[in-house]
Specification:
495 residues, alpha/beta, 12-stranded mixed β-sheet, 3-stranded mixed β-sheet, globular, MT-A70-domain-containing protein, methyltransferase activity, nucleic acid binding, DNA_methylase_N6_adenine_CS, SAM-dependent_MTases_sf
Length: 495
């Protein structure tokens, strides 16, 4: 591979398709206004090269996990057999034969090449006062009228947006003031500088500070409740053609990344965010498929036929058409993701496994656990029509619901990558922008221009679009701390 890492990077270690990544740092770097064409680290690189680029802001986080979670696995043979009976044989084989050996070997590769005295994550900015782990601590001098995250629920719904909704263009020379989040629908920051949105600044009460959100350069977002979350009777008739309200048909993307609210009993009980019940899986699958069908770039479209002639600025230089869906370890979620990708014309080409570890490099739970697995999987498809090195063509494959199992699809995937990372706050995923760019959009060492969209996003990414009702969640200023500030935070390292 060759080369050294010259720019700041969140990748602490890389060996071919194996990565060790720091989650808060990955999100922080994704706020920068330039895409960082990171040179691949040398094979077995430990990331010991120091960057000369000083990071000035830290994303508030939680203390890194030091010990694996206590086991909740069934201990008695009868209980174990009962659990196994509920898991399809194809799903057992998928995890035991394809995923588990790869994860185990990848962790060993990191341990062999990464310095033994270094933690598997960077120091984290952690509030030094008791706080709810789902929300960063607020400044002690000012009392807020509820959390920003609660107010995000007032985002416009699908009925409030039309296909001709004009976007709000932000200024970068002064804060952009709004009375409430519901005033924001389609918002753009076309500048190469960050912008600030200030909500509630019209109030005169000095005990209540306005909420500020930092909008990365060249980022755009649609703040709304997606139609697939609405009851069938309330769902707009145009929802299939406009699965993201207000986003026009001609807005196409080379990369669409989705983190859907899959059914999850523990998450439903905690109330962290809304999830779908398994009985609504077909609705969720249909919604994912519609988004991909309408907004993914068609690699067979000629540049002369692109909508850039009638819509200047929308020319797509990259011919890639990539879609990625985070899934849980439930068989129904994997089937739904495969089906949504296939139905939208994508051939499933890669799977990326995020392995959750302690700061000492141990999986947070048993690799072969039944109740809880220490990893999540990102399923990646490439639009058919490209020369794709896969053994299955999305257009020729039989409909997945008619298959006895998913073995044929999963065994045809030619590339799997492992990304180890110490978990951050609940539901935060690692920002994989730099890895996506290096894998799919680099040509002869140069980053090609591409368009990206993250659906169900909980933070913005520079240069990308984002859609959902929580797109601003972790872009609130209170989620960040400047080095040297007086804010009550500590930089916590894993001892």
């Amino acid at each position: 591979m060759g080369g050294t890492i010259q720019e700041e990077t969140s990748i602490l270690f890389q060996d071919k398709n194996i990565y060790l990544l720091d989650i808060p740092h990955s999100i922080a770097l994704a706020q920068e206004g330039r895409s960082i064409p990171q040179q691949p680290a040398p094979e077995s690189s430990s990331g010991t090269e120091k960057s000369t680029h000083r990071k000035i802001r830290n994303l508030l986080s939680c203390s890194p996990i030091k010990e694996p979670f206590p086991s909740t696995e069934p201990k008695k043979p009868a209980a174990l057999a009962k659990v196994l009976d509920t898991i399809p044989i194809s799903e057992r084989r998928f995890h035991s034969e394809l995923i588990l050996p790869l994860v185990r070997d990848s962790l060993e590769t990191i341990r062999a090449g990464y310095p033994h005295d270094r933690p598997w994550c960077e120091a984290r900015a952690v509030p030094n006062e008791p706080h709810d782990s789902t929300e960063p601590n607020q400044h002690p001098r000012k009392r807020r009228r509820g959390s920003d995250y609660t107010r995000l629920e007032s985002a416009p719904d699908a009925h409030a947006l039309t296909k001709n909704e004009p976007p709000i263009i932000l200024s970068t020379t002064s804060p952009n003031d709004f009375e409430a989040l519901s005033e924001l629908a389609i918002v753009k920051n076309p500048s190469s500088e960050p912008a600030i949105i200030r909500v509630g600044s019209w109030r005169r009460d000095e005990t209540i500070s306005p909420c500020e959100y930092m909008i990365p350069p060249k980022s755009s977002f649609v703040l709304c409740t997606l139609p697939l979350f609405q009851a069938e009777a309330d769902r707009p008739s145009i929802s299939h053609d406009y699965p993201i309200p207000g986003l026009p048909h001609h807005q196409k993307f080379n990369l669409i990344l989705m983190d859907p609210p899959w059914p999850n009993k523990s998450v439903r009980r905690s109330g962290h965010y809304k999830t779908h019940h398994y009985s609504e899986m077909d609705v969720l699958t249909e919604g994912l498929r519609d988004i991909l069908r309408v907004h993914s770039h068609d690699p067979e479209a000629k540049q002369g036929q692109c909508p850039s002639e009638t819509h200047p600025g929308l020319a797509i230089q990259s011919e890639q058409s990539i879609a990625a869906i985070w899934i849980t370890n439930a068989e129904k979620a994997r089937r739904a993701a495969y089906e949504a990708l296939s139905d939208a014309g994508f051939a499933i080409c890669e799977e990326w496994i995020w392995v959750k570890t302690t700061c000492g490099g141990q999986p947070i739970s048993a690799l072969d656990g039944l109740w809880r697995k220490p990893y999540e999987i990102l399923v990646i498809g490439r639009k058919s029509g490209l020369n794709v090195d896969v053994n299955i063509n999305a257009n020729n494959a039989p409909p997945l619901p008619q298959m006895d199992d998913l073995t044929r699809v999963s065994e045809a995937i030619t590339t799997r990558r492992v990304i180890a990372a110490v978990p951050d706050l609940h539901s935060r995923k690692p920002n994989l922008k730099s890895i996506f760019e290096n894998v799919f959009f680099m040509e002869a060492g140069h980053l090609k221009e591409y368009s990206g969209l993250e659906v169900f996003a909980r933070n913005l990414t520079a240069g990308w679009w984002a859609a959902g009702n929580e797109v601003l969640r972790f872009n609130a200023r209170e989620c960040w701390v400047d080095l040297g500030s007086e804010r009550n935070t500590d930089m916590v390292e894993c001892a």
